[in-house]
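tool_call predict_complex ligand=zinc ion
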Amino acid sequence: MSPDKIDEDELRRYIEYLQSKLATEGVADLFNCENVKEWANGKVNSLEDFLSQYPSEVAASLKNTLINDINGFTPRTQFDIPFARYVFQPILDNVAAIAQQLGYRLRLPLRIENSTDVSITPASRPSQDNHLIFAGVGTSSFCNAWAKVYAAIFMEIVLGPKIKSLKYRGNKQLDSVESGTLGLAAKLCAYYATYSTLLFFGEIIEPSENNEIRLQLLSAMETFVIAHEYAHCFLDENTPVVQSNADREKEIELENKCDLIAFRICCSYGEAVKNVPAISGAGAILFFNSLALSERVHNILFEKDHRSESGHPDPVKRIEYLVSLSKEKAIAAKNLDIVEPYLNDVLSICQRLNTFISDLFKLYQSQK
Ligand SMILES: [Zn+2]
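tool_result ok
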């Protein structure tokens, strides 16, 4: 056996060990590759119906993924299922290529593995030999569901469907958001507050005209999230002392640095593909807003502080930081007059949702 093979086997065992530690209780069956293949093959029967909601090229690629790619998938570990690598590997490849151009080059290999934690956050494990990022269905289900909510709101009230360039079509009617969309947001919050995942929430049907903006929001969110984990690996290589310091202030400083690098990567990505939510940081802001909302509902329903259980900084503070980064960048690019009203609208959406959802759950709690 070659030395490389031994290393790979060792790494595989280490990944498997971490996946067993990360695993959310009670969902082990979900990460059985044979079960996933069985599910996918069962889905084939109802495939035409299922795919009819997508544009034809998306439908064709999904069909291909479900039938061929999933059946041909070879798991690396006993917890490996196709989704993590199919969804996040292309995003990571993109992030790594942009990061290199921006000067954030990694010396060590980085790979993405399936996360068995079905909550929102992926995790990175930088090390002296290999960096690992664990991401999976917990993150993608959260981003997918909330991208549908915000896409519906964007389509209804503020920016309309032509959100391809930084041209701003100011049309503020924030009070006109449909109750169905707000109701969906409230359900997502209640579900996440209760189960700490959106994985089993169920299908959310959306009108096909929302697809374009939804996909922009989704890729802006997921690119930011993966870029943040990439930044942890980069900073670990370059300032290892920060990573090992358990002091809370240092921890927040490190998270801010990762958010800064992720914001820069996300902007470059957005500029390349003309994705305004990525360029402006709006995708990341809306992602953190969804997290903040879910935590607030958790605190109202269960009368305890969710924040104290979590290692990451307050998402509200992360939103403020991202807004300041986005404005700084717009000032440098001399387009603050366009970016600022756009960001203000995004923040108004957050505010409106926050007020609606807080009032709703406080009322519910008071009438119990
Ligand atoms: Zn982090």
